[in-house]
Write a structure and sequence with these properties.
Elements (H helix, E strand, L loop, with lengths): L1 H26 L3 H6 L5 H11 L9 H8 L5 E2 L9 E2 L7 H13 L11
Antiparallel strand pairs: 1-2
Helix pairs in contact: 1-3, 3-5, 4-5
Length: 118
């Protein structure tokens, strides 16, 4: 019975955190944009707001977001005697943005894939 009481307390605390996150999200200047994406709820919209921030100059183009997340198509020739081109290994990228973009891509209609290359 003690475990049930602990779980009930934990659920109440989680609900309190969710309410606070929703309140803070509504204060973000771009919250309506994030919430307008098909399938995006409070949690994903809040994650997007926290990843993108409120400085619109940071990401002027979608390709800037893709480059930071490591989803932009970057290729380079690895050998001058070969005609093949391999993808460059991405180091020092923002995995949080990459994971968030993957979540967004997965909830969008496949015909609306505007964030990541197929």
């Amino acid at each position: 019975m003690a475990l049930v009481e602990q779980l009930q307390l934990l659920l109440a605390q989680i609900k309190s955190f969710e309410n606070k996150i929703e309140q803070l999200l509504k204060q973000h200047t771009d919250s309506e944009i994030f919430l307008s994406l098909p399938g995006a709820g409070i949690r994903l919209a809040a994650r997007m707001a926290s990843e993108f921030g409120d400085n619109r100059e940071r990401y002027k183009k979608v390709s800037s977001v893709q480059a930071e997340a490591g989803t932009a198509p970057i290729t380079e020739t690895l050998c001058t005697t070969s005609h093949s081109v391999a993808s460059k290994n991405h180091h020092g990228l923002n995995n949080a943005i990459s994971n968030m973009l993957l979540l967004v891509k997965n909830i969008l209609n496949p015909s609306d894939v505007w964030l990541m290359p197929g």
